[in-house]
Amino acid sequence: MTIPANQLHDLPILSLETSEPVGHTIKPIVRMDNLQVVALRCAKTGQRSPFLLLTSDIRQLTIEYLIINSETDLLKLDDVVRLRDIVAADFDPIGRTVVSEGGHHHGVVRDYHIDGLTALIRSILVGPRLFASASKTTLIHREQIVDVTPKRIVVQDAIELDTASPMVPDIAA
Fold it and tell me: CA dist 142 to 2, 87, 101, 153, Å?
């Protein structure tokens, strides 16, 4: 199952331990080098400072809510040393320019889909910049992504068929 990233904003977090809401999601924390959502930035009920929820601590994820074992799964930002650089980089694919290896500009990332089991970004939804028709979007699979930088995502050039040559060789000749 894949989940659109835009559905991970303001998602209630429920605790199995108490069967009560313990907070809500703010946004995914994406590791730029492998396009994996490693955590979710969260807000704890009744607290002002942000918290992190590691994707490995998520028991169940639906489009309506997220379930964790207990409130103790919500960690303070300073307590997760191994993710400090990733959190500080604050990489968000949404809004990044998408270009092909040949330099063709495809648009910007409008949304992305996350694999529910591995937390890897499976595909990106690319559309034109603001003020252009939002109906013209392209879905690009992760295997087509060549490089990711803080400002842009490079994808493979499209394979074009040579329409002048026959698709099937003429075996009668």
Answer: 13, 22, 15, 11
CB atoms within 10 A of CB 26: 18
pTM above 0.90, yes or no: no
Burial of 115 (0-12, 13-18, 19+ CB in 10 A): middle
Instruction: Burial-class residue 108 by CB neighbours within 10 Å (0-12, 13-18, 19+).
Output: buried
Quick one: CA torsion of 8, 139, 127, 92, rounded to 10 degrees? Answer: 40
Per-residue pLDDT reduced to its tens digit, 125-173 = 999 876 555 568 889 999 999 999 999 999 998 744 344 444 444 444 3
Phi, then psi, of 89 in degrees rounded to 5: -65, -30
